[in-house]
Design a protein that fits this description.
By secondary structure, the protein is α+β, with helices and mostly antiparallel strands. The protein has ten helices and ten strands.
């Protein structure tokens, strides 16, 4: 039995700086959240079968990011070891990262599969090669492929610059709301595009995460907060001082005071 963890992330800030067709170009700071993760377990099958995936995903197999990662990896590498592995092993995923939460669960799952297979099967793919595959799957996949604690993320999520910093201690605040990322971005484009602040985006990228969270308000840091509140009014109960929205929602987070483990 083989197991590994698929971690969540939060956006310390998320600034939208341009458009690329139907996509939005961003500047953002991602932090890995080690306290929240899905668990991958590859279990030996009793009978040989093709790719099998088990878990509470809420989508058809062909739309699942793990399955997409499997298909794109096969397309890129064309190595018989990949199919041989899945004839003998089924993937079981214990889902702990909520869906539609802004925590990157689907992207993390895709990246975790690519990293796991690269290691287990000794495919010898570089991070650059893995990111080439990851860019075809989803906007946040490449961050997880770098396996770093913190990074600035740009473009449509494909440009990742890991950074060294003393990351802040955070507490996740779950809202039980499912946020449709496409809907939140569409609402932003239609109603809030004129509020884009390029100068602030550049400034934030050069600050450490603790400085950012101590110096700016939630509305300044996440360009999608206003549109998320329009799309999902129930989030207004959580949109208060010191509660920062991750991604397009629905999870907020607050900074903990490391001296006494209480919030600032």
């Amino acid at each position: 039995m083989l197991s590994c963890k698929s971690y969540a992330k939060v956006n310390v800030f998320l600034k939208i700086i341009g458009k690329r067709g139907d996509y939005h170009e961003i500047k953002s700071r991602f932090l890995k959240i080690e306290s929240l993760h899905d668990i991958f377990t590859f279990k030996l099958k009793s009978v040989k079968r093709e790719f099998e995936l088990f878990g509470e995903f809420g989508c058809e197999l062909h739309n699942n990011t793990i399955y997409k990662a499997y298909k794109f990896l096969k397309e890129y590498k064309n190595d018989k070891k990949i199919d041989d592995f899945f004839e003998h092993y089924a993937l079981h995923v214990e889902k702990n990262i909520p869906k539609g939460s802004g925590l990157g669960g689907g992207s993390s799952n895709a990246a975790t599969l690519l990293l796991a297979l690269n290691k287990i099967l000794k495919l010898n793919l570089s991070v650059k090669e893995l990111c080439h595959i990851g860019s075809k799957i989803g906007a946040d996949v490449n961050f997880f492929l770098y396996e770093c604690e913190a990074a600035n993320v740009e473009g449509v999520g494909e440009i990742v610059t890991p950074i060294e910093e003393d990351t802040p201690k955070l507490k996740l605040v779950f809202t039980d709301e499912f946020c449709d990322t496409a809907k939140v971005y569409k609402t932003f484009r239609e109603n809030f595009w004129n509020r884009v602040d390029m100068d602030l985006a550049r400034k934030l990228a050069n600050l450490n995460s603790k400085e950012i969270l101590n110096s700016f308000t939630p509305i300044e840091l996440n360009d999608l907060l206003r549109s998320a509140l329009v799309c999902y009014p129930n989030l207004k109960a959580f949109a208060r001082k010191g509660f920062f929205l991750s991604g397009s929602g629905s999870t907020f987070f607050e900074v903990l005071d490391e001296r006494n483990n209480s919030k600032k």
